[in-house]
């Protein structure tokens, strides 16, 4: 006799796969974050940050969105201390 | 019950014990503001609000909460959440107790969709209408300490609103157990559907249930575990169950099982 699969388990496994896929996809993802000032030649410079750094930045408003671009709100070449979110 | 109180106390202390280092890439699915100087982890709600404002999909932040939710359901609400612990303690104040109407438990889904995702998406992450602006945990951990340290007596309107929400929530939880969790918590709204499929099970002896209803009496979420036990369903398969295990603790059959 074939045992009927438990729907709850199937949904749970599907959700687990989705969660793991999100984590894997996220860990490979990077974002372009631009400096707010242009360099001496008028060119925009940018940093490439990974998703984990983006999560950290989003905890203290380290990035701001403007005209479909993400701009850094602090000097990334300097070590950063503890920062609080303005909201 | 004692185990839960010890765990809640330890998590309150440990989650807010950062002397400098931080693990803010990790989204801990409890209501604890990441702007608190002592917090180790990120608040998933704060991260989602910023991601909505940036028009980005929160792969890691959502993946972490989903993963923990699928494995543990709402266990974090019952055992780890410091704001839940505060509500449990405040509810011990002896007054007339009330049970919120069932429809109020749907408000949190609206709060999640509107104030965490939609409004920040359209108005930006710094909007006055995001959940962070009214978050009682943030008011307690960040706004109040900042207010005391600044020594200022003039309150901006946003701060006043946040503090009024905090007072209203703290008063509500004295009268109604876990009123904030039931009606407003957006983390609870994310974890609630996962409770129905989670791998974590609160197992009670279903075959010999004597229908003493002790589990219903003790249930802090008032989600009637006995109705599920009667059907042979795991007792935490409910949207609003916070997986506290209190139903299991008081079950006379469970105690008899332990003795034999």
Question: Can you offer a commentary on this structure?
Answer:
The complex is a heterodimer of chains A (87) and B (260). With 87 residues, chain A is of the alpha+beta class. In chain A, 34% of the residues lie in helices and 21% in strands. Chain A has 2 helices and 4 strands, in the order αββαββ. Chain A has a 4-stranded mixed beta sheet with strand order 2-1-4-3. In chain A, strand 3 (63-66) and strand 4 form a beta hairpin. Chain B is mainly α and 260 residues long. Helices cover 55% and strands 3% of the residues of chain B. Chain B contains 14 helices and 2 strands. A two-stranded parallel sheet of chain B has the order 1-2. Chain B starts with a helix and ends with a helix. The model of chain B has no long low-confidence stretch (mean pLDDT 89). Chains A and B meet through helix 1 and helix 2 of A and strand 1, helix 2 and helix 3 of B.
Short summary:
The complex is a heterodimer of chains A (87) and B (260). Chain A has 87 residues and is an alpha+beta fold.
Helix content of chain A: 25-40%
Listing every helix as H and every strand as E from the N terminus to the C terminus, the arrangement of chain A reads: HEEHEE
- Element string of chain B (H = helix, E = strand): HEEHHHHHHHHHHHHH
Low-confidence stretches of chain B: none
Number of strands of chain B: 2
The chain pair with the largest interface is: A-B, 35 and 41 residues
Q: Quote the distance from N terminus to C terminus of chain A.
A: 59 Å
Fraction of residues in β-strands of chain B: under 5%
- Biggest beta sheet attributes of chain A: 4 strands, mixed
**Number of helical elements of chain A:** 2
Residue stretches of chain A low in confidence (pLDDT < 50, at least 5 long) are: none
Provide the gyration radius of chain B in Å: 19 Å
The largest beta-sheet of chain A arranges its strands as 2-1-4-3
Structural class given helices, strands, pairing of chain A?
A: alpha+beta
User: On the 0-100 scale, what is the average pLDDT of chain B?
Assistant: 89
Quaternary structure annotation: heterodimer
């Amino acid at each position: 006799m074939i045992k009927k699969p438990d729907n709850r388990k199937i949904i749970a496994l599907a959700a687990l796969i989705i969660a793991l896929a999100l984590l894997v996809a996220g860990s490979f993802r990077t974002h372009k974050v631009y400096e707010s000032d242009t360099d001496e030649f008028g060119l925009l410079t940018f940093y490439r940050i990974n998703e984990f750094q983006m999560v950290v930045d989003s905890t203290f408003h380290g990035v701001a969105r403007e005209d479909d671009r993400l701009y850094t709100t602090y000097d990334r070449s300097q070590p950063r201390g503890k920062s609080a979110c303005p909201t | 019950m004692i185990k839960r109180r010890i765990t809640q106390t330890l998590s309150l202390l440990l989650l807010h014990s950062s002397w400098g280092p931080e693990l803010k890439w990790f989204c801990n699915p409890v209501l604890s503001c990441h702007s608190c100087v002592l917090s180790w982890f990120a608040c998933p709600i704060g991260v989602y609000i910023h991601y909505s404002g940036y028009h980005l999909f929160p792969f890691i932040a959502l993946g972490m909460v989903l993963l923990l939710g699928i494995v543990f359901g709402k266990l974090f609400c019952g055992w780890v959440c410091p704001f839940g612990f505060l509500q449990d303690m405040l509810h011990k104040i002896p007054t007339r107790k009330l049970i919120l109407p069932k429809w109020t438990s749907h408000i949190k889904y609206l709060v999640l969709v509107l104030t965490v995702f939609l409004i920040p998406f359209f108005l930006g992450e710094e909007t006055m209408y995001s959940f962070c602006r009214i978050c009682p945990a943030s008011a307690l951990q960040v706004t109040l300490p900042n207010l005391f340290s600044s020594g200022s007596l003039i309150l901006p309107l946003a701060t006043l609103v946040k503090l009024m929400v905090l007072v209203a929530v703290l008063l509500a939880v004295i009268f109604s157990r876990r009123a904030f969790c039931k009606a407003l918590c957006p983390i609870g709204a994310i974890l609630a559907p996962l409770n129905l499929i989670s791998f974590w099970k609160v197992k009670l002896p279903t075959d010999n249930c004597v229908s003493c209803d002790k589990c219903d009496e003790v249930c802090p979420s008032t989600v009637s575990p006995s109705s599920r036990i009667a059907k042979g369903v795991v007792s935490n398969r409910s949207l609003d169950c916070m997986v506290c295990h209190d139903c299991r603790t008081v079950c006379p059959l469970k105690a008899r099982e332990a003795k034999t």
